[in-house]
Automatic annotation (TrEMBL):
GO terms for cellular component: membrane. NCBIfam families: PRK07904.1 (NF005912). It comes from Saccharopolyspora kobensis. GO terms for molecular function: oxidoreductase activity. Belongs to the short-chain dehydrogenases/reductases (SDR) family. Pfam families: adh_short (PF00106). This is Decaprenylphospho-beta-D-erythro-pentofuranosid-2-ulose 2-reductase.
Amino acid sequence: MIDAVGNPQSLLLLGGTSDIALATAEKYAAQRPLRIVLAARESERLDAAAERLRKTGSTVVTVPFEARKIETHAEVIDKAFAEGDIDITLVAFGVQGDNEQGWTDVETAREMAEVNYVAPMTLGVRLAEKLRKQGHGHLVVMSSPAAERARRSNFVYGSSKAGLDTFFSGLTYALDGSGVKVTVVRPNYVHTKLTEGIKPAPMAQQPEQVAEVIVDAVRKGKEQVWAPAQMRWVMTVLRHLPRVIFRRLPF
């Protein structure tokens, strides 16, 4: 169970090599050792992530996970919950993709849709069932400001994140009264492996800064948060700009 000050006893990281997910786990583990499940592709990166978190004194197990293999997700979730209840689940996997390929190549578009939307949605259905049965838990999902209004340079990615964002925002209503909470996190550009090679945007964040936002949001029971917080007001303005003006902006 999550204690009175928002600290969990157990974590499930779907996308267990994510820089943001690992930074979040370390922030929680700084308060007390945890039981952590890392679900990700089998790789040296996954082994290194597990070893990194074991240094916090936490117990860490790994579960092989492929986002696009939807037929395996039930087994992944069952394995993750095999040792007991999960207090916080962080859905932190995704692909940035090449936007120009995304709207001209079917396979690229399909990969972005399956990884960024279809897989999180189907996992969300299974996780909601598990968490409702245990009667508690907090589900955190990584979205993007692009889900609110995508630019010319990222509209394929943005469309996939918009689907994810809408589903999990709706899940906050559906799970009301069940003891289960949902938080949708919309971080601005973050310096991670996912964004390597992409020009940083203004107000770029480090994984540790986003992790702080996540920890605070779970503690306060917030359903939506932006990182940094100022992005909320930036997106409020951008959402309401007329199309003729928005399409002329230099990004």
